[in-house]
């Protein structure tokens, strides 16, 4: 995945407790389950949508007006949202390499991605987002009283020629009470 300047904020600017979570190469879901036993997934939206401007090139769309399949979920601990996750892929990918995504329901996307050995992942990219970014605004629809800036990370997953872009926005209850980095699995 190309690392545009907008998705390459220096990691040293992130809160120290959040840095290990932003750079975690393994399954974020598995790590959350290890630290938050009351973990669950709440689906906020799933279906066709117009991609955000910074997603078009990442998933190799021919034009920005082309619709994509999206999935938006909250990763929760009890009733506390920890992460707002937003995934996009071309519709054709639901008929091939990413077919199971259409049937996940309240299961985590990570449970599929990290259990499928043929799926490859790009390097992670991260940035701070604010109310000007569509994902901050989407997170604000589900979580009250967000701070002015949030941290997000994203990466591409490849299944053959198909691409899935996953962006995870870390919510304030999460990084305010993030488990210590040395307790990470």
From TrEMBL:
The subcellular localization recorded is: Cytoplasm
> What catalytic activity does the UniProt entry give for this protein?
chorismate = 4-hydroxybenzoate + pyruvate
User: In what pathway does it function?
Assistant: Cofactor biosynthesis; ubiquinone biosynthesis
Q: What is its EC number?
A: 4.1.3.40
User: Carries keyword Oxidoreductase?
Assistant: no
Record key words, sorted: Cytoplasm, Lyase, Pyruvate, Ubiquinone biosynthesis
InterPro entries noted in UniProt: Chorismate--pyruvate_lyase, Chorismate_lyase_/UTRA_dom_sf
Molecular function (Gene Ontology), one example: lyase activity
Tell me yes or no: is Cytoplasm among this UniProt entry's keywords.
yes
Question: Top-level EC class, please?
Answer: lyase
Tell me which residues bind substrate: 71, 109, 168
The record's similarity note reads:
Belongs to the UbiC family.
Under the heading HAMAP family, the entry gives: UbiC
**Record's function text:** Removes the pyruvyl group from chorismate, with concomitant aromatization of the ring, to provide 4-hydroxybenzoate (4HB) for the ubiquinone pathway.
Q: What is this protein called?
A: Probable chorismate pyruvate-lyase
Which organism is the protein's source? Jeongeupia naejangsanensis
The protein's gene is named: ubiC
């Amino acid at each position: 995945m190309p690392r545009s300047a907008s998705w390459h904020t220096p990691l040293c600017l992130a809160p120290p407790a959040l840095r290990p979570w932003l750079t975690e190469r393994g399954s974020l879901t598995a790590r959350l389950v290890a630290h938050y036993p009351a973990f669950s997934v709440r689906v906020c939206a799933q279906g066709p949508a117009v991609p955000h401007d910074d997603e078009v090139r990442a998933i190799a769309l021919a034009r920005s007006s082309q619709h994509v399949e999206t999935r938006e979920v909250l990763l929760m601990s009890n009733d506390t949202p920890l992460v707002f996750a937003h995934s996009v892929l071309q519709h054709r990918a639901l008929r091939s390499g990413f077919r199971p995504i259409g049937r996940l329901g309240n299961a985590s996307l990570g449970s599929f991605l990290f259990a499928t050995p043929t799926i490859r992942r790009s390097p992670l990219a991260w940035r701070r987002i604010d109310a000007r970014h569509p994902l901050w605004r989407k997170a604000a629809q589900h979580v009250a009283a967000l701070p002015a800036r949030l941290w997000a990370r994203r990466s591409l997953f490849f299944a053959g020629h198909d691409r899935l872009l996953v962006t995870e926005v870390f919510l304030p209850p999460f990084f305010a009470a993030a488990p210590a980095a040395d307790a990470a699995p």
